[in-house]
Design a protein that fits this description.
The protein has 307 residues and is mostly helical. The chain contains 15 helices and 2 strands. Helix 1 packs across helix 5 and helix 1 runs antiparallel to helix 11. The longest helix has 29 residues.
């Protein structure tokens, strides 16, 4: 049987992740954010278990050796990122959230440069500045006076924090790719994330008296984000990255705001504003430029940058 094209798998993964932003916005009034995140990962945990149970005992000793890193992965990638995105979608549009989220590769470049002393190419530095200017343009809604008065949508700011969480997670995954077994580590991180999320969900439901509307919309949304936006997207992405490499795959992340915007316009009736289009183009342009590193090129080291 012929394996699917890695490029098709990348498009599938970003399409499913784009849908995650729209689903989170669509059920914002049906399922509170901590509980939505908890139910998402409960579903993913149960669905993913049959695929990892054979290798889990053999992988456990390696995972246990790096338990501190796995806990940080769980807090940032499983608990923090997704929950913050779902909270943010109570205050901002799915289009805005996905556009701000598209700055993730840039933040990863910067974290790798600062904390792991990876060399930064001139194109990456220029691309970072272009993308960040696009993010600021989106946050200010095209009015630079909002920057001076610090007048921002709190949902957009939460997405920025979520992006930082996901970037930390991504950098750790990259740094420990050859030390930790991918699927088993992901499964254990989901389990640890559930432990962290559970008390927050209880507080949300029992103390703040939030309720879950158990209708077909909510159940379908939980099934989608738990199975498709989590397991299917994750396995598709990692299979493709293994085939063509992370650098080539990274540019496909730009499809997330494209799909999210299309779905939001079609299913939620959101509209694309001029400042979103302009800011989004700057973000995508910056990310694209950052991925274009010539073979013979000038690199900037952290030592040179601070001297």
């Amino acid at each position: 049987m012929k394996r699917p094209s890695p490029y098709l798998l990348l498009v599938l993964a970003t399409l499913l992740w784009g849908g995650n932003f729209v689903i989170g916005r669509a059920v914002a009034s049906n399922v509170p954010p901590y509980t939505l995140s908890f139910l998402r990962w409960c579903t993913a945990f149960l669905v993913f278990y049959p695929f990892v149970r054979k290798n889990l005992p053999a992988d456990w000793l390696v995972i246990k050796r790096h338990w501190k890193i796995v806990i940080v992965m769980a807090v940032t990638g499983i608990t923090g990122f997704n929950t913050l995105v779902y909270i943010s979608l109570h205050y901002t549009t799915s289009i805005n959230a996905s556009l701000v989220n598209s700055s993730t590769p840039i933040i990863i470049f910067m974290l790798s440069f600062v904390f792991f002393k990876e060399r930064l190419h001139r194109n990456q530095l220029i691309g970072t500045l272009i993308s960040l200017s696009g993010i600021l343009f989106i946050l200010s809604k095209g009015d630079w006076t909002n920057l001076l008065s610090f007048s921002f949508n709190q949902g957009d700011l939460l997405v920025i924090v979520a992006v930082l969480f996901w970037s930390v997670y991504s950098v750790l995954v990259k740094q420990y790719a050859n030390k930790l077994p991918g699927y088993s580590t992901f499964f254990v991180a989901i389990g640890l994330g559930l432990i962290v999320l559970f008390p927050f969900s209880l507080v949300e439901l029992l103390i703040y008296k939030e309720t879950v509307s158990w209708d077909i919309t909510s159940i379908s949304a939980i099934a989608y984000i738990g199975i498709f936006a989590s397991i299917v997207a994750f396995t598709s992405w990692n299979t493709a990255v293994a085939a063509i490499g992370a650098n080539k795959a990274g540019i496909f992340l730009n499809f997330i705001p494209v799909f999210a915007s299309l779905f939001a316009i079609i299913f939620l009736g959101e509209t694309m504003t001029s400042y979103q289009m302009i800011g989004g183009l700057f973000v995508v342009l910056g990310v694209y430029l950052s991925t274009k590193v010539p073979k013979k090129s000038h690199f900037i080291s952290r030592k040179n940058a601070v001297s």
